């Protein structure tokens, strides 16, 4: 089978699996809804744009009076209207679907960034946060929770900004005369993460009443997900994925080492900058919304690499989709106990033993 | 056809001077061997030629254009590199590794076209790795891997070849075959510069030799002029005997035991 067929087959299979797992995850909960009803309710919520009309209109501006304007009106049509109980419809589309969708987006993004970081660092221990993105987001978020008056921005904004500032800082620390050796980057990332860990611990000591909220954020969470969260995380994840996928071939060449990549015609430093910036953005976008969810970005690429091989042209899309499936499934587990657990606990508690099993059973020590 | 010019290149790595005022020119369509003892700076010299290292002083010209001013992609289209047998401990099929040689010829969104596929198949044929095409590169032997790297450089279709110990992990027959192949490619118009450990093989296949010792060029010229006992003894620091090889008629160097205890 040639590579395109294989990529398409794996991606289609994983997308179908994602759909099934999502429907089951939505069906599952304190009020059980049968999967068929879930599917119907989701279909009911589906709208497709059927027409675009443009008409002349006028806008009133205070300075210029009436200004001619073109109003674009998009007409939507809901193609399905299955009979579904109103309460079921609300539970599915307002409560559970956004959470499952957010889990899928976050899993997709973390697995994408993790795959790229492992290839980039040629290091099986690399994960999306290796250059301090999550530590920066955590420091920002905890600061915003513990000192609500001091930090001018909202929680998510502060976390996002913290993530990017730290990633960029680590990059600058590791860069000398236009070159960024990956070993230096790795060590700088570890040192900065340790430092920020201390800072976060100290802030937690001062946290008082907000301690519980801060800890909850740190553990990674998808509860209280809204369609707004999905709308905020999906575009950067998809755009970032598209950019990284365009560099899949360069990532393969970089696996040979930077010198060889250069001799083959890849501008290693420039490619590294782009890969680092885009995967940090992708990670920051999800961490800011969902907190620090560990292990997805580390374990999913390894498992998928066992199945499809190291070629990033097939590894990247399959990893991303598998990450989505994994997080939707673990989040369903997280909320099925008597008390809901932060999903970060479940990904680590389920992921780590499985990873150890793979480590013993087959060879997950190389890229 | 392009020529390679190295003009008074100086390179320091980690505070140590590796190359000192090295100049050499490889005329278009010739095969030059860089020989010398371990640590003489052969690999460093090749790394400045293919633009991986920027020299502290001096410059390298490929086809008259300064390597420092060219992008990685432009350099790769002028000179293909065969590295010292790297580990390649990963599971890419041999064909995909050879296809990486096409990197400098393909746009980011371009799928492999007919020209790419033809170049890859031709390169695998010439380097005698076609029968390994679907095997994982991690599973082939050291010698086969070396030929895979040669195939990758051939797929690059660059007019110049830079080879770092291309025969190091090959058996006797494959050494001769590989250097014969490079000599054929030079015959067809490519320019090649190679670091070669085996002086006899260098003398047999190359148009001229450059003797590098301690970061400086000790001698250069046609093999029979360069491979004299005094030059080789000075470069390698031990007694040798140089003869014409009975089978090939080219100079042959035999290292002798260093019996002088005072040295």
Write the layout of secondary structure elements.
The complex is a heterodimer of chains A (367) and B (263).
Chain A: H1 3-27, H2 35-45, E1 48-61, E2 65-77, H3 86-121, H4 133-146, H5 155-174, H6 182-205, H7 211-218, H8 227-246, H9 248-254, H10 258-263, H11 268-290, H12 296-308, H13 312-334, H14 343-361
Helix pairs in contact in A: 1-2, 1-3, 1-13, 2-3, 3-8, 3-11, 3-12, 3-13, 4-5, 4-6, 4-7, 4-11, 5-6, 5-11, 8-11, 12-13, 13-14
Chain B: E1 4-13, E2 16-26, E3 31-35, H1 42-49, E4 57-62, E5 65-66, H2 72-78, E6 79-82, H3 94-99, H4 114-126, H5 142-155, E7 160-164, H6 172-187, E8 191-195, H7 199-205, E9 208-213, E10 216-221, H8 223-226, H9 229-236, E11 240-244, E12 251-255
Helix pairs in contact in B: 4-5
Describe this structure in words.
The complex is a heterodimer of chains A (367) and B (263). The two termini of chain A are 23 Å apart. Chain A has one domain: ABC transporter involved in vitamin B12 uptake, BtuC. In chain A, a hairpin with a 3-residue loop joins strand 1 and strand 2 (65-77). In chain A, strands 1-2 form a two-stranded antiparallel ribbon. Chain A is mainly alpha-helical and 367 residues long. In chain A, 68% of the residues lie in helices and 7% in strands. Chain B has 263 residues and is of the alpha/beta class. Chain B has one domain: P-loop containing nucleotide triphosphate hydrolases (Rossmann fold). Helix content of chain B is 32%, strand content 27%. In chain B, the strands form 3 sheets. Chain B has a 6-stranded mixed β-sheet with strand order 6-7-8-3-9-10, sandwiched between helices. The N and C termini of chain B lie far apart (47 Å). The model of chain B has no long low-confidence stretch (mean pLDDT 89). Chain A binds chain B through residues 246-247, 249-250, 252-253, 255-257, 259-260, 262-268, 309-311, 366-367, and chain B through 47, 50-52, 71-73, 75-77, 80-81, 83, 86, 88-92, 96, 100-101, 103-104, 106, 108-109, 152, 156, 162.
């Amino acid at each position: 089978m040639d590579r395109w067929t294989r990529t398409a087959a794996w991606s289609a299979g994983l997308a179908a699996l994602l759909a099934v797992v999502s429907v089951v995850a939505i069906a599952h909960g304190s009020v059980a809804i049968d999967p068929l009803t879930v599917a119907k309710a989701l279909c009911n919520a589906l709208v497709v744009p059927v027409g675009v009309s443009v008409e002349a209109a006028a806008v009133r501006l205070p300075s210029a009076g009436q200004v001619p304007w073109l109003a674009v009106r998009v007409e939507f049509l809901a193609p399905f209207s299955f009979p579904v109980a109103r309460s079921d419809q609300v539970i599915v589309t307002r409560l559970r679907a956004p959470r499952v969708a957010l889990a899928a987006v976050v899993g997709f993004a973390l697995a994408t960034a993790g795959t790229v970081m492992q290839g980039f660092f040629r290091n099986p221990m690399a994960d999306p946060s290796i250059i301090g993105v999550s530590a920066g987001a955590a420091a920002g978020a905890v600061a915003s929770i513990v000192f609500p008056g001091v930090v001018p921005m909202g929680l998510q904004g502060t976390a996002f900004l913290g993530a990017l500032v730290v990633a960029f800082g680590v990059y600058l620390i590791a860069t000398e005369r236009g070159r960024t050796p990956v070993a230096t980057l790795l060590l700088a990332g570890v040192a900065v993460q340790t430092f920020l860990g201390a800072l976060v611990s100290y802030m937690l000591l001062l946290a008082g009443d907000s301690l519980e909220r801060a800890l909850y954020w740190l553990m990674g969470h998808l509860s209280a997900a809204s369609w707004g969260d999905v709308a905020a995380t999906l575009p950067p994840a998809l755009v970032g994925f598209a950019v990284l996928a365009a560099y899949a071939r360069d990532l393969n060449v970089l696996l040979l080492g930077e010198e060889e990549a250069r001799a083959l015609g890849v501008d290693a430093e420039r490619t590294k900058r782009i890969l680092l910036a885009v995967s940090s953005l992708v990670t920051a976008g999800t961490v800011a919304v969902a907190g620090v969810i560990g292990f997805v970005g580390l374990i999913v690429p390894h498992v998928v690499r066992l199945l499809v091989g190291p070629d990033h042209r097939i590894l990247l899309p399959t990893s991303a989709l598998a990450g989505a499936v994994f997080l939707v499934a673990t989040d369903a587990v997280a909320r099925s106990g008597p008390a809901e657990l932060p999903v970060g606990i479940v990904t680590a508690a389920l992921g780590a033993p499985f990873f150890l099993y793979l480590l013993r059973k087959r060879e997950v020590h190389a890229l | 056809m392009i020529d390679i010019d190295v003009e008074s290149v100086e390179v320091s790595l980690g505070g140590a001077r590796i190359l000192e005022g090295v100049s050499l020119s490889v005329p278009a369509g010739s095969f030059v061997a860089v020989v010398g003892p371990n640590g003489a700076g052969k690999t460093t010299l090749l790394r400045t030629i293919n633009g991986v290292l920027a020299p502290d002083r001096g410059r390298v010209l490929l086809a008259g254009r300064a390597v420092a001013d060219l992008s990685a992609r432009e350099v790769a289209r002028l000179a293909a590199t065969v590295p010292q047998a790297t580990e390649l401990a990963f599971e890419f099929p041999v064909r995909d590794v050879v296809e990486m040689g096409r990197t400098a010829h393909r746009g980011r969104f371009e799928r492999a076209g007919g020209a790419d596929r033809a170049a890859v198949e031709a390169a695998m044929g010439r380097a005698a790795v076609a029968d390994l095409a679907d095997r994982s590169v991690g599973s082939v032997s050291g010698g086969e891997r070396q030929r895979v790297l040669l195939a990758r450089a051939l797929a690059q279709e660059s007019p110049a070849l830079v080879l770092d110990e291309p025969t190091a992990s090959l058996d006797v027959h494959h050494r001769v075959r590989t250097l014969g192949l490079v000599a054929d490619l030079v015959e067809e118009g490519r320019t090649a510069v190679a670091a070669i450990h085996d002086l006899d093989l260098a003398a047999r296949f190359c148009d001229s030799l450059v003797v590098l010792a301690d970061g400086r060029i000790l001698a250069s010229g046609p093999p029979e002029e360069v491979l004299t006992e005094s030059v080789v003894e000075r470069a390698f620091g031990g007694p040798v005997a140089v003869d014409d090889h009975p089978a090939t008629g080219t100079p042959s160097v035999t290292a002798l035991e260093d019996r002088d205890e005072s040295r």
